Amino acid sequence: MYFNNAKDIAKNARHQVLIEKMSPILQSEVQDRNGSWIKKLGIFNGQKLSREFVVGMCNLLHGTVYEPSEKIAWDDQLFCVSRGVASQKGKIRTAGTFWGEDFILECEAMKEKYMGHAMTFVEILVITRTDFFLLLDDGFTNEATMVRKSVVKMAVNRGVMAAAKLIRDKRALEETGSYPLKSIGIKDLTESLSAQKMDDEIHHCHVKPGEQMRRLIHEQSRKMTKFGAKLE
């Protein structure tokens, strides 16, 4: 069974070589089915993507086959199930589903580093963070703007969730006299939510944010940092 799947991977690689020789329009038509999941990524906010960008992402994907019960190690990249069934973060992942969208964040403390597990022989397609941002930097300003907005939204949401966890942990300390072992530190939270960190996040999207957006980011960062200081 493993060798049958490996044979399919090799066959797909040969097809990819042929696709790369086609014109952008023909490539987009051929890659439309394979890249349909890309259009569903939340980091693009449901907006329309250019054909060239979808083709570019498809060309950067590479696949790996895992056998049943094998671990799919976390890495700083986007994962998509091409075929088979996997599980990740307590969810069943079938063909066309994905995880790891927080690879767009620069701050490691804000990322959910859950590994996956193969439930059947499964082929996983991935694109690395480096390749993704190099693609965005190759003239895809509209897509880069979408990602930049998602970075800000995701960073703020993760910060709020971390702050809520701090409140729960603080109450647990008051009630039991001990913190949960995996409690996030106040220092880590305030550093992650600093204005400088937010600037670093959007800087890596290669798009300069508007002044209004920058003021909003800094204001939210100051509020969260002040909140964290009160808990110390």
UniProtKB/TrEMBL annotation:
InterPro entries: cNMP-bd_dom_sf. It comes from the Eukaryota. This is Cyclic nucleotide-binding domain-containing protein. It comes from Octactis speculum.
